[in-house]
Amino acid sequence: MNWYMPWRVADENTRTRWGYSFQWTQDHISADQMQSMKFTYDELADECLARLDQLSPPSGPTLLRNSNGVPVDTKDGTAVVSPPKRDLYLLLRDHASADEKLTQLWKEVNTIPDWVDWQQIQRGQDVFYRYGGAALTGLAYQSLLGGMGANRVVETLARTGGFSTKIARHRMYETTQHILQCTASLESIQPGGAGHASSIRVRLLHAAVRQRILKLARQRPDYFQTDKWGIPINDLDSIATIGTFSATLIWFSFPRQGIFLRKQEIEDYIALWRLIAHDVGAPTQYFETPAKAKAVVESILLSEIDPSETSKILANNIIKSLTAQPPSYASKDFLYANARWLNGNELADRLGLGRPSFWYYALVAGQCIFFMSFSYFYRSVPYIDRKRVKFLRKIFYANIVGNKQHGLGRESVFEFKYIPEFHTTTEMGEAEESGVKQPGVERRNLKTLLIAIAVLLILGWLTSFTLLRCVRYIGHAIW
């Protein structure tokens, strides 16, 4: 859903794409300028991964053994296998002095850029939790689901097989874990902290995916069309990822939910993600200022978002993986309404998303009122704001990472487990419902909407009553 702004006047610099209009500036990037960025990537990470593979080769599957050390057999007589986990961050840390390239990467990720202001970074972390519910909603239904409209990027995602209906929710939780660790505390994002370590793990994981796809493409050129799609997880893709987690929230997702950040909050949040970009090996110059960050995501929206059939499959698999799942227990139509509210009908139609009834849009409106009411109230009272930020830090992490029933159950080390193969594809799946019936988020949104309507009716009645009394008073005074 886009807000109608009658004061906006189009001119030769106005660009409109997928229902969103903006003014083209010198900070924007043309499609021709983006072309070369599709063939540049984090070469240092690839070189370091190759060194780590030499120093500590990835092990093959290992036999699961019982307490007596005897292999456990399955019904068909073959041993049950469980591939061991390899923590690339620990390998890099422990072998940093063993190789020149490893030393270079370790020094790079542990050197604080001159532009980092730790107080600003800490404020940026708080911004995420200050608008926590709206932020998670925007990340899920616009940054991720809407991002599936990038037809080049989905070709890489589809080849990992990690966005089938059975896996997509787990993948989204892993991504959310990275965000939560980067915003957990100032110590967490500083060298040696959990968020800092996760960023390096993600960086090396991207290198592993990139190397694997390129290896298969060399064996069978039609497997991945590098001349058309560029190098997998290239610089443009990395910039787009950082942009969707930062600028897309600020200028797309939040406003469409009725939330507008203050100038200082915008500067702080962009600064936070610029630092994360540094750690994951993405170009940082496009996030030097809020204006540049806004320009780069608008440029990508204009040139890169063009859904394909693969886009439709992945977008719908995300919806199906979240349908009737804890903790929200949201219906499929409510999820469709969320996606359409945030991305607009034009893009949602191209992604093949269903069209829910007006009822579900009303529930999304109630959700927006809920987010607006709490966000604006809490941020206006600093003491309560600090308490709420602290509370949501614990709740989000406990539910998404720590919960063993409907969360990850443990911290992910971002191991390379969704391995591209020639036979690996992602097809349209079916919804995997939890089987548990709970009122869920829709009832909360309905209550909020009804309360808002009641408040408006009361205010309307009080306003009418007051005006009527004033008119009568003035009338008596005149006559």
Give a written overview of the molecule.
The chain is mostly helical. 60% of the residues lie in helices and 3% in strands. It has 21 helices and 4 strands. It has a two-stranded antiparallel sheet with strand order 1-2. Strands 3-4 form a two-stranded antiparallel ribbon. The radius of gyration is 25 Å and the shape is globular. The relative contact order is 0.14.
Coarse shape: globular
The residue ranges in which pLDDT falls below 50 over 5 or more consecutive positions are 61-82
Terminal CA distance: 52 Å
Radius of gyration: 25 Å
- Strand order across the largest sheet: 1-2
The chain-level structural class is mainly alpha
Estimate percent helicity: 55-70%
Strand percentage, roughly? under 5%
Task: Tell me briefly what this model is.
The chain is an all-alpha fold. It is built from 21 helices and 4 strands.
Key terms:
mainly alpha; two-stranded antiparallel sheet; 479 residues; 21 helices
How do the helices and strands line up, and which of them pair or pack?
Elements lengths: L13 E4 L2 E4 L7 H5 L7 H13 L6 E2 L17 E2 L5 H7 L5 H10 L8 H13 L1 H13 L6 H10 L7 H15 L3 H4 L4 H26 L6 H4 L5 H11 L1 H10 L6 H18 L9 H15 L4 H14 L9 H12 L1 H6 L7 H22 L2 H21 L37 H39 L1
Antiparallel strand pairs: 1-2, 3-4
